[in-house]
Design a protein that fits this description.
The protein is mostly helical. The chain has 14 helices and 3 strands. Helix 5 crosses helix 9 (209-223), helix 6 packs antiparallel against helix 8 and helix 11 (248-255) packs across helix 12. The longest helix is centred in the last third of the chain and has 23 residues, at 261-283. It is globular.
């Protein structure tokens, strides 16, 4: 059965909607496949008639203008699409079957520092302050925060039931007491909530994720926090949760991850932070004076418990040459055994004066 590109994409879009994919996911995947269909049309073939060579040319063109992790995501989207097309009888082969998934470095985890979170909270007020509190203490996505319904909040237990995340996976998270109180005041003061805590203006439904982003971006500008992203609050929650002894399995439940891959990604970042902290304690890069003293005693060779051979030799010669009454009282330098010196001198000079012995200079000793 031969169908055109537009019909194949329309049917696949309906398939994704029936699977329960979010509206944003459907739009993103359809956009990628639309670009792939345009590339195939320029090559003179239909989307479902592409071969491995043409797919490789498409990937090569993507590497010229896209990041490696983006190309990897596009590859996965195309592979799932052709698997669906074969199952539906629309295609006979999957041109991506024998191709290796493009390699890409893991995306770095970018949490906010405690100082940045405090600056954001200090620069915000009212609704924006509540948003920051909830994002950093619950790990909510921006879209999940925007679509909170009133009936999903349990003020007695101070919990929130989240179901509008990726894949509509339901989970329950705990609210801070001050955030729960502010949420209750927000609902009581809103006369047009229509079931949502933050309804949209002039239409039914809730505010969009972009509205939250733009309002919080202004807060970040006032707080002088660079590189602002709403998703960094989610990263901050995950990293701080693991740093304080939270389990990876519990984190996956709280964040609504369908697999452990992303939770383990956070765990890897946290382990890296612990390793750096251990190295800092070892090499004395911190400002703790005790650690620096421990470093000096570790790196610098320790002095022997008794007097050194050279020091003992000098003292024996002094005893033979000088009367006992004139022998200077020993003074300790604080690091080892006592050495000859003058009793009235509080600090030893770098090279203490010694008399000439047997016609030799003190340097020959």
């Amino acid at each position: 059965m031969s169908v055109g590109n537009d019909e194949a994409l329309a049917r696949y879009k309906q398939y994704m909607i029936a699977r329960g994919f979010s509206r944003f996911t459907v739009q993103a995947k359809t956009s990628v496949l639309g670009r792939l269909a345009l590339f195939a049309r320029k090559a003179g073939v239909d989307l479902l008639d592409m071969d491995s060579r043409l797919i490789q040319n498409w990937l090569a063109s993507l590497f010229e203008s896209r990041a490696r992790d983006t190309v990897k995501d596009y590859f996965k989207i195309a592979r799932v699409f052709f698997k669906w097309a074969i199952a539906e009888g629309l295609a006979s082969i999957n041109p991506l079957e024998g191709l290796e998934t493009p390699s890409a470095p893991p995306k770095p985890v970018e949490p906010y520092s405690p100082a940045e979170v405090r600056a954001l909270l200090a620069a915000s007020g009212g609704r924006e302050h509540l948003w920051i509190l909830m994002l950093v203490s619950t790990g909510l996505r921006g879209s999940e925060l925007a679509g909170i319904r009133v009936e999903e909040i349990d003020f007695e237990e101070e919990t929130l039931r989240v179901w509008n995340g990726k894949g509509h996976k339901e989970r329950v998270i705990l609210l801070r007491p001050d955030a729960a109180t502010a949420l209750k005041a927000e609902i009581e003061g809103n006369k047009r909530w229509h079931g949502y805590v933050w309804p949209a203006r002039g239409r039914l439904g809730h505010i969009g994720e972009n509205t939250i982003y733009h309002l919080l971006q202004e807060v970040a500008w006032r707080a002088k926090v660079p590189h602002f992203k709403v998703h960094k609050f989610r990263n901050t929650f995950a990293c701080r949760f693991l740093e304080r002894g939270g389990a990876v399995n519990d984190l996956a439940i709280l964040l609504g991850h369908s697999t452990m891959a992303m939770s383990l990604h956070y765990a890897t970042w946290t382990a890296q932070g612990r390793a750096l902290a251990a190295q800092r304690r070892f090499n004395g890069l911190n400002d703790d004076e005790g650690d620096d003293n421990e470093l000096r005693s570790t790196v610098r060779p320790t002095l022997p418990a008794g007097p050194s051979v050279a020091t003992e030799g000098v003292r024996q010669q002094l005893r033979r040459r000088l009367p006992a009454a004139r022998l200077p009282a020993p003074i300790s330098d604080g690091r080892g055994p006592a050495v000859p010196g003058r009793a009235r001198v509080r600090r030893l000079p770098s090279r203490p004066h010694l008399p000439r012995l047997h016609g030799r200079s003190r340097g020959s000793l």
